[in-house]
Amino acid sequence: MALAGGGGGGHVRGRRRPRKRPLSEINVTPLVDVMLVLLIIFMVSAPLLTTGVEVELPKTEARAVETDQEPVVVSIDRDGGIFIGDSEVAWDRLVLQVAQEGGEGAREKPIFVRADGRAPYQAVARVMARLSTEGFTKLNLITDTSAPAGGEG
What we know:
It is built from three helices and five strands; from the N terminus they run αβββαβαβ. The protein has helices spanning about 30-45, 95-100, 120-135, and strands at about 70-75, 80-85, 85-90, 110-115, 140. It has a five-stranded mixed β-sheet with strand order 3-2-1-4-5, covered by helices on one side. The chain is elongated, with a radius of gyration of 33 Å.
């Protein structure tokens, strides 16, 4: 005789297994590992991202220039060649190229002049005088401040 009350296939109430809930915590260890690797990569590559013209800056004891605007960098190599960024600029196009590189309000932006320590003084003076007479007022000479100036010849 079968029982009519449905007592055969039901669950027993006292022995229910707890549901598995998704883990709501984020494992930050892999995130920290990735961030440290990126930090090291940027620390190593940042000095290599400066301007591309190779110049040996003269050593001075001056303090670093602080500016909140992105400067236009004009480089002068040891032979007196003039560069803006990586591209060489002809003397007659210097002012036009600096104005284009600086964008809107270029005459008010700082201009960093990076000259090789062995570059002719005349080349550096001519570039600075030309930019100054054309209305660029924030001219800065960039030097190497990492070591004190000494008796180097």
